């Protein structure tokens, strides 16, 4: 940035949030122009309340001023073909999902709902796209009433197959007509009627419908989408088995390359992993940019290797790889940490502490009505005993052939995770870590499914839950400090490795190198 700008990094001491800056630092009686499509109605309401005592106000602009400056050099919006997702993968028809949504609208005593989150539209309509990298969604809005449903799509993305898929449940209208339609619909209902919008819906949508007509609440689609049906759960299992085979091929190849003295950059390695995944059945793309990181780069939590400048992978450094794929039957997200040389004692101890936290979550049994906020400390207990910790959540929800990060639930220290209880059918990651700045990074991540758990007793008649892991990839035995690991934890690791070998080895019959590697890496401790 040049001298016209001052950088304020939100979250650092004495640095205000941008909202605080507007009502604490600006002069009074300010008029603040905003693009109403880029701020949620909920945040706008809160900000308006904070600005009012200062005589300041938000002004909704018809056009984005930055876009005007950007002009013709701004890249065109991606508009890729939209495709139906067969019910053999989704597990439920669009008609069934619409019926459940309308039942929820009746319970909430609202007339309609404007659906604006792209993954919610995709899930409701059993459609998928590729307008946003790594996320199988498309640009769309939907308006669902008690007796009708309209979806707003770009005509160039819709073919006859999609039209036939939607024709019995939805009217298809032009994407650009949505705001005019919302205005007309909002003005057509009585003062006693109301329209539900999710708590992430934009100010532009709320303004079009009329603020006095909308009810802002968490979207019922968010909750319905988070609980996977039996078909989706089986899809998660099967996609992770195939994904595990690609991971075995990749790590076996990488080890061989490094042992042979090959020079490989982090980016080149990531490309090879993508190549292995691309050959799998039902593969549709990666679920996020692969984090392929060696040594100090592994301590950068959301590191992304630049093909032009990234580091060369070294045998004498820890290698952290966080990657995932999108498949018609599921979404994967897995992190493994390796050392292809001789690890230092402090690396082994830190790795083992992370592993203990991972096992603690995997084996946890907890009563229904428990949130991810409550159980997060189990993942950190072993690290805390050594005075270690990590600065990210322990787990995030995962979409079914949808966004790899999906709410409303998660496991972490953010108080927002206490708003949603973990429920049977939810998918969530289990990914404790440790990061020594400038030295190395460690993370172990599996996807787990919340499942009912039988217990000898049932105190309070609550019912109890546990986790089923579906990620299948060896955990590096060379980095385990056996003096730190308990007997019970060793039993868990051996059982996990036995499961990995039994489920993955049949897929590697034609790859002797990967099969041999898998057999060695899953040998009992």
In a few lines, what is going on in this structure?
Keywords: Aminopeptidase, Hydrolase, Manganese, Metal-binding, Protease. The chain is an alpha+beta fold and 525 residues long.
Q: What would you say this structure looks like, in words?
A:
It is built from 16 helices and 24 strands. The chain is of the alpha+beta class. It has three domains: 53 residues, no CATH class; 143 residues, Creatine Amidinohydrolase, Chain A, domain 1, CATH 3.40.350; 287 residues, Creatine Amidinohydrolase, CATH 3.90.230.10. It starts with 17 loop residues before the first helix and ends with a helix. β18 and β19 form a beta hairpin.
Task: Set out the fold topology.
Elements: H1 18-25, E1 31-34, H2 41-51, E2 57-60, H3 65-70, E3 83-84, H4 87-90, H5 94-107, E4 112-115, H6 118-125, E5 127-128, E6 141-145, E7 149-153, H7 160-166, E8 171-174, H8 178-188, E9 195-198, H9 203-209, E10 214-217, H10 220-226, H11 230-259, H12 266-278, E11 283-286, E12 291-294, E13 318-323, E14 325-327, E15 330-331, E16 334-339, H13 345-362, E17 366-367, H14 372-384, E18 395-397, E19 406-411, E20 427-430, E21 433-436, E22 440-443, E23 446-452, E24 464-469, H15 487-504, H16 512-521
Helix pairs in contact: 8-9, 11-12, 11-16, 13-14
